[in-house]
Design goal:
It is a single chain. This protein has two domains: 4-196 and 322-344, no CATH class; 201-293, no CATH class. With 345 residues, it is α+β, with helices and mostly antiparallel strands. It is built from 16 helices and twelve strands. Strands 5, 6, 7, 8, 9 and 10 form a six-stranded antiparallel beta sheet that branches. α1 runs antiparallel to α6 (107-125). 46% of the residues lie in helices and 16% in strands.
Length: 345
């Protein structure tokens, strides 16, 4: 039976399948799922991920809307992996709103790591895996995603929903961007976070004085509202997605622009509908493929004390911490291997 050396943790494993006469044949040797998980964590950490979690598939199936559960995308999925990457630099948060809209988002880093992880799983373990597309369902319009990456991360225990429009927050890393991988390899699932870091104590204090948290107070279109109970927990949260999207997610403005062009009464009015400064910016973003067509304005996160003061929210501290995390992941994996070797003897 062919052996394969796992270059992420340094152990030898047996692939789940082998190729015989062009056919993929399942092999009987079982993969150590705990070690496989450690190898995946090491891979993602090395590539720049800050958080890694595995969501329970059955739980996701119970919560996700009909037609949007993991098994609707990959029928034999056994594990849903969620990874999180950090946001921008400290300087990005200090920049003006126009600049932050261009440089605040790092979601493509998460997608790149997840895409690579899917290939790593198939290469190392022979189990089918896919990068979960972060896109809208083409049959449902611009507001319904094929899968909720937020739900995956929440059930995987690497983020909790906040007062700020349900944006996930992490006590160590603040706001992260998430990506998911589905695989037919069964690996140990994690559990949701026990404690939600939101609201921060300073937000509770401000709410008691003014009736608003910082994210409510500084939202430029008042799309966030809610209440905090006597225990300092979120009792109710309201998020006006339409108000937020109208201002920041400009892909929703394009149909209105086209309607204005068709309704124009004369060539001058039609020309203004096409070439006004605001609309020219949309054409510019379309021409260069700028992700800001799907952007947030970030003002709620700019004033969020969890995002701004979380232990590892500082990118410089993250750099030091990530090196430590890599060392710890490798040490743990080797310790488990030593235990196995001792038991085998």
């Amino acid at each position: 039976m062919p052996k394969r050396h796992n270059r992420f943790l340094g152990y030898t494993c047996y692939p789940l399948t082998e190729l015989r006469n062009g056919q993929v044949i399942p092999m009987t040797e079982a993969i150590d799922s705990a070690l496989a998980k450690q190898a995946m964590i090491a891979y993602c950490t090395k590539k720049g991920a800050l958080a890694f979690g595995v969501a329970d598939v059955d739980t996701l199936e119970k919560i996700a809307p009909k037609g949007h559960g993991p098994r609707d995308m990959l029928p034999r999925v056994k594990s849903v992996i969620s990874i999180g990457v950090g946001g921008g630099t400290k300087g990005a948060w200090a920049a003006d709103a126009k600049t932050l809209a261009y440089i605040g988002d790092t979601e493509t880093t998460a997608y790149r790591i997840a895409y690579g992880l899917a290939f790593m799983i198939e290469r190392e373990y022979g189990a089918q895996a896919i990068f979960c597309p972060p896109d809208m369902d083409p049959e449902k319009g611009a507001r319904t995603p094929m899968q909720s990456l937020k739900l995956h991360a929440e059930i995987a225990g690497i983020g909790a929903r906040s007062m700020a429009g349900d944006i996930l927050l992490h006590p160590e890393f603040g706001m992260m961007y998430y990506a998911s991988v589905f695989t037919e390899l069964e690996i140990p699932a994690d559990v949701p976070m026990e404690d939600n870091p939101c609201p921060h104590p300073s937000c509770v204090k401000l709410y008691k004085k003014s009736g608003k948290t910082p994210c409510m107070q500084f939202c430029p279109v008042d799309c966030i509202s809610g209440t905090i109970d006597e225990a300092g927990k979120v009792a109710e949260m309201h998020y006006d997605a339409h108000a937020c999207a109208t201002m920041s997610q400009q892909y929703e403005a394009i149909p209105n622009m086209l309607l204005d062009m068709m309704d124009a009464q004369d060539p001058i009015e039609r020309g203004m509908a096409v070439h006004s400064p605001e609309n020219q910016l949309i054409w510019y973003k379309l021409s260069i493929g700028a992700g800001e067509l799907l952007s947030l304005c970030y003002e709620c996160m700019r004033v969020c004390p969890i995002t701004q003061t979380a232990l590892m929210a500082d990118p410089v501290a993250r750099g030091r911490g990530m090196r430590q995390k890599v060392a710890e992941a490798e040490a743990q994996a080797y310790a488990e291997l030593d235990v196995e070797a001792d038991q085998g003897d």
